[in-house]
Amino acid sequence: MYEDFNADYDRFVDWQARLAAELPFIERQLQAVDARRVLDAACGTGMHALALARRGYAVAGADLSAGMIERARANAAAVVAGEGMRVRFEVAGFGALAQAFGAGGFDALLCLGNSLPHLLSPEALAEALDDFAACLRPGGLLLVQNRNFDAVLAGGERWMSPQAHREGDMERVFLRFYDFEPDGRLTFNMVVLRRQGAQGWEQRVRSTRLWPMRQAELMPALEAAGFGELACWGNLAGEPFDLRDSGNLVVEGRRRGHKETRGQGDTETRGRETQWGALVEMGVLDRIRCSKSAASAMPATNIR
Ligand SMILES: C[S@@+](CC[C@H](N)C(=O)[O-])C[C@H]1O[C@@H](n2cnc3c(N)ncnc32)[C@H](O)[C@@H]1O
Predict the structure, then answer these.
(1) So where are the chain's domains?
(2) S-S: 286 plus which of 65, 152, 237, 243, CB 3.0-4.6 Å?
């Protein structure tokens, strides 16, 4: 999907509004761990990475899509090269990051914009989270921004808000919707309508499959991969998480100092794996774990 959508991605996202809404919270979380070296995993066209580079962080970006990375490098040339900054962008998917960038070299790893749900199985998620942990120094920060699929599934929220874009006499409309599949996965469809001047509309549909990861699926996977001090927010403005209402599930964790071999988790980890599901069922997880901080409402930061 992203191989040929990369050309339109920066038209589809209103980066000015999104970065204004998200960067203050992201920077607060980075500063809390004295982060300097940041890896943006699934960086797309590199706009978060470039914005952070301009704020003085040593940033690298990676994405599975060569087209996205080509676009990120072009954005880097346009945005930061003239300011003497270099941001390294590499084609590397989840699971291949520590190999591409070396182990333990980052203070923080970002995985934003609902990228993690492109992994379709618990095994692929475990491999990706192990790789994230391997990239981080002990105590390093992981920040994940997913859609709140608990709310999507509960409400059968099929359609996302349309976006329109105009450049001269070229108009584009982006329509997104899910197909709920019998195997519990989603097909994510992106329709792009395009017309120039008075010509007729052209249409193009692209699709990819997603795993609508619930909070009770993601949290134990993070614990098992060696992340502690887990906390949730409802978006990247730092609003509290509400399982039923929030647009996003934003999760932060810190890489623990040491990690047991997977499957031999300590009592604490094993106990918590069962607790997450039970607490979510009881409807209390979002209240006890997810009330760290609240900021002003900034709907633009919701990746709905
Ligand atoms: C919706 S975009 C998000 C891009 C950017 N992080 C943002 O917040 O706008 C999802 C990105 O995930 C990338 N992606 C999908 N599967 C991936 C994988 N297995 N490993 C790394 N990146 C992946 C896609 O190529 C795409 O750039």
Answers:
(1) 6-148+212-287, 153-210
(2) 243
